[in-house]
From TrEMBL:
Family, similarity comment: Belongs to the protease PrsW family.
This protein's UniProt keywords: Cell membrane, Hydrolase, Membrane, Metalloprotease, Protease, Transmembrane, Transmembrane helix
Protein's name in the database: Protease PrsW
GO MF terms held by the record: metallopeptidase activity
Location in the cell: Cell membrane
Membrane topology: Multi-pass membrane protein
Transmembrane intervals: 6-21, 33-53, 68-88, 100-121, 127-150, 162-181, 187-204
Function summary: Involved in the degradation of specific anti-sigma factors.
InterPro entries (alphabetical): Peptidase_PrsW_arch/bac, PrsW
Iron-sulfur as UniProt keyword: no
Species annotation: Viridibacillus soli
Catalytic class of the enzyme: hydrolase
Main location group: membrane
Length: 224
């Protein structure tokens, strides 16, 4: 059991460390990040319950609607919603790169608990693919969400609502595309590999832009 938990948790910790250490200009309070991670972990259970109820009650006539659309929309909406009500106005959300860290934290909290439950059900032999795809994709969805939340908080007022909306709908769109590829029975890997490469490129580009915005923000405040 200890080995299984370690294997399930390791990808999330590694990915979070990667994004955390890329922020060389400021250090975000670890306690707030831990709280955000816990929010994401707790979210796993109501979301899985909601998905189970909808599946059992056969709310959607076509099961692919639930697997592709419903799952992506619900997961990303609740992560966005928690960030908006618990983190967005927090005093420690004080620079543009913070959005990336909080987005990654809540996404990896969700992905880590989901990963533990999955490995408990299907075994450790699935851990490698889980780390490469579901866990890392959740982290990158979080990067995109957090980047635009950071943009909205530190942009001109007329851009705030636009960026907040993009922070919700961009991860939803990426998640839906991911789900659509994943449910394809034939040769799905030929589409998933380029999509994951694109997702990493896109996410790392947002990380770089967020870091540049952080430098500009600190310069404007005459902290550097």
């Amino acid at each position: 059991m200890f080995i299984l938990l370690s294997v399930a948790i390791a990808p999330g910790l590694a990915l979070f460390s990667f994004f955390y250490l890329r922020n060389q200009m400021a250090t975000e309070p670890r306690r707030t990040l831990l709280h955000t991670f816990i929010y994401g972990a707790i979210l796993t259970f109501p979301i899985l319950f909601l998905q189970y109820v909808f599946k059992e009650e056969q709310i959607f006539s076509n099961p692919l609607i639930q697997d592709i659309l419903f799952t992506g929309v619900v997961e990303e909406f609740f992560k966005w919603f928690i960030l908006m009500i618990a983190i967005y106005h927090h005093v420690e959300f004080d620079d543009p790169y913070d959005g990336v860290l909080y987005g990654v934290a809540i996404s990896l909290g969700f992905a880590t608990v989901e990963n533990i439950l999955y490995l408990l059900s299907y075994g450790v032999h699935t851990a490698f693919l889980r780390a490469l795809m579901p866990v890392s994709s959740h982290a990158l969805f979080g990067v995109v969400m957090g980047y635009y939340l950071g943009k909205s908080k530190f942009s001109k007022k007329e851009k705030v609502n636009e960026y907040i909306s993009i922070a919700l709908f961009a991860p939803i769109l990426l998640h839906i595309i991911y789900n659509l590829i994943f449910v394809l029975e034939d040769h799905w890997s030929y589409l998933m590999i380029p999509f994951m490469l694109f997702l990493w490129w896109f996410g790392l580009r947002k990380v770089k832009l967020a870091h540049n915005h952080l430098i500009q923000h600190l310069y404007a405040q005459k902290k550097i």
